[in-house]
Amino acid sequence: MAKKPADSLVIMTELVLPNDTNVFGNLMGGRLMYWMDIAAALAAQKHSNAPVVTASVDNLSFMNSIKLGNAVHIEARVTRAFNTSMEVYLNVWGEDLVAQNKYQSNTAYYTFVALDEAGKPKAAADLKPETEEDMELFNGALRRRQVRLILGGKMKPGDAKELKALFEKG
Ligand SMILES: CC(C)(COP(=O)(O)OP(=O)(O)OC[C@H]1O[C@@H](n2cnc3c(N)ncnc32)[C@H](O)[C@@H]1OP(=O)(O)O)[C@@H](O)C(=O)NCCC(=O)NCCS
User: Which residue, 63, 97, 145, 150, shows the most beta carbons closer than 10 Å to its own?
Assistant: First the structure.
């Protein structure tokens, strides 16, 4: 049965404590990626009703540092399910709870594979986009999948028809 992106929505909030920071008093990128991996895995598990493993993480750029004592909010939801793999979109922002100020940290795409009892890839439910934003993410997911499979050595560039069409549009 198909599921909606909203069915897999996860919002995770963490408080940045001294042990999470670098020498500048900002949240370490590695700690943030760890929290993002957990939030995204929860979303993928909600979608697939199965345990999942991280197959790949797309490029990550950190726009603004998240300060010691601030909150970090990570929103994750599945954008598209292929066969056994699912793309999860993450939106991350910081919040200074004293100054009541919210700021963007980054956005990212993680890919997860659902596994069966034997630890083998297992088909995940289809995803049915609802909103305009859902549809935009759903459509782009096919091209992003082609990029990551080419980079992972799992697809020949010549087979990535939708990606190629994007460059041929002029
Ligand atoms: C990810 C993993 C399950 C893929 O298994 P595999 O035996 O290569 O299986 P397949 O080639 O049949 O691929 C299974 C799915 O993974 C997808 N996949 C494989 N490599 C991928 C990559 N680099 N990026 C995105 N998706 C990938 C495939 O497209 C396929 O998806 P689909 O069924 O929706 O088409 C396997 O490589 C694995 O277990 N990796 C380690 C995962 C892990 O431990 N992660 C934590 C970090 S250490």
Answer: 145
